[in-house]
Amino acid sequence: xxxxxxxxxxxxxxxxxxxxxxxxxxxxxxxxxxxxxxxxxxxxxxxxxxxxxxxxxxxxxxxxxxxxxxxxxxxxxxxxxxxxxxxxxxxxxxxxxxxxxxxxxxxxxxxxxxxxxxxxxxxxxxxxxxxxxxxxxxxxxxxxx
Length: 145
Hints:
The protein has helices spanning 4-18, 25-37, 100-108.
């Protein structure tokens, strides 16, 4: 974590870099010092932020023994990267190609995955609530590349 003085110094360096070819660079430097000394920063922040990052999952497309469930992946979908959990007693046929995590979801949702298998077409609405409106909106918005 940065200190307030470090943040102020970084801001000053950015400003000076922007005006490095200016004839009045010394004046700009002094004005930065004067201006930044009066600025107060609130260093408190909420450490919890929802992770909304897209990861390229194409490396998992051709791997064998990988879970076949589709994941959300910030609107882009993708294949789950976990290994298949081989279990002798399966309640649903689909469990044979899923990891332990998605097997639990299958059992909870009576044989349905949230976003289906990664080989299936992208669903318009999440499978867990076909009869209700989607919590993310009327439809799932996929960013299909």
